[in-house]
Structure formats: C-alpha cells, structure tokens
Amino acid sequence: MESCVFCKIVSGKLDAYRVYEDDAAVAFLDLNPVSRGHVLVVPQRHAETVTELSDEEAGELFAAARNVAALIEEGLEPDGLNLLQNNGEAAGQEVRHVHVHVIPRYFEGDGLAVRFDTEALTEEAASRVLETLGQA
Ligand code: 5GP
Ligand code: ZN
After folding, report:
1. Residue nearest to ligand 1 atom 19, measured at CA
2. Which end of the chain is more exposed for a tag (fewer CB within 10 A), N or C?
3. Could you tell me the residue range of the domain that residue 73 belongs to?
4. CB of 87 closer than 8 Å to CB of 49
5. Strands of 25-29's sheet, edge to edge?
6. Per-residue confidence of the chain (136 residues) as pLDDT tens digits?
7. Which residues contact 111 (CB under 8 A, 6 or more apart)?
8. Residues within 6 Å of ligand 1 by CB
9. What angle do CA 41, 50, 125 make, to 5 degrees?
10. For the domain that residue 70 is a member of, what is the CATH number?
C-alpha cells in the first residue's frame, strides 16, 4: 500500500533501524521507544488489523515476534518483556499496518505503564458474553 509508512519500510523506500527479517515479517526499532530496544514487528504483506491476517500469516507474525523477543533477551538482557498489539483507534493503533510491539522491560524504569482498571466478573455478565459469542 503506497501511502503506508510500514509498507515503505518493508520495501526499503523509507529508512529504519532493522533488527530482523524473514520471509513473512520485518522488525525494526520504534522511532519513539518506550524503553531501550523497543521493536516493531510487521508482516511484509499490508493488512490493517490482526483479523485481516490469515491463520498462517498470524502464526508467522507471532513466530517473528518470538524470534525478536529471543534476540532481545539474549542481547539486552531485560528484566521482562511485553508483547503489545493494538487494533483500531480506540485501542491506540496509530499506524494502520498491523504490528506487534516487542517491549523490553527494566526494573530501573521505562516509559510504559500497563494498568488494568478491573471489576469482578459476574455470572450474568459472563453468560451474556458467552451467548453473544455462541459459546453458551
Ligand atoms: P501503534 O500506536 O499504532 O500501535 O504504534 C505505532 C508505532 O509506530 C509508534 O510507537 C510510533 O512511534 C511508531 N512509528 C510511527 N511511524 C514510524 C516510522 O516511520 N518509523 C518507525 N521506526 N516507527 C514509527
Ligand atoms: Zn502497509
């Protein structure tokens, strides 16, 4: 897709600090890292969100993210690691080419705060969701 920045990076029209590449995916440093070694993993084929990928493509993307995670663990020795994948504006997706964030975490502190404001699941809420999903 011509106007897509990640397609431009995949094709080499736009520079990026590439850290990994295979037949299905490319990985490069995020321009605005939340921590040292924050990497984006993108499929070579343009797709907007995760559900636009086939089962096979989704598997290949996750395998590439796993490989990048292993590289980061070995090279940067972080204290932990988050995989983050945003779909749609409400979920914080800014670039409309599906991607997985691989974010090394450090006890010394970084720019990522993952907070879940939760409430306990009720039986009624659970059955309503399961009914909607056809699993009741
Ligand atoms: P999203 O919010 O869509 O999940 O994340 C998009 C990420 O892409 C952001 O963290 C942003 O810093 C990064 N980004 C946006 N444009 C570019 C670019 O041209 N090059 C690189 N390397 N990263 C980019
Ligand atoms: Zn694209």
Report:
1. 5
2. C
3. 5-132
4. yes
5. 18-21, 25-29, 39-43, 100-105, 80-84
6. 889 999 999 999 999 999 999 999 999 999 999 999 999 999 999 999 999 999 999 999 999 999 999 999 999 999 999 999 999 999 999 999 999 999 999 999 888 888 899 999 999 999 999 999 998 7
7. 33, 34, 35
8. 5, 16, 28-32, 40, 86, 92-95
9. 130
10. 3.30.428.10
Residue to mutate (ligand 1; options 7, 14, 40; most atoms within 8 A of CB): 40
User: Residues 10, 102: contact at Cβ < 8 Å?
Assistant: no
Query: How many independent structural domains does the chain possess?
Result: 1
99 as an active site residue: the answer is yes
Name the nearest CA neighbour of 19 among 29, 32, 10, 11. 29
- Measured CA to CA, the distance from residue 47 to residue 1 in angstroms comes to 9
Say whether pTM exceeds 0.90: yes
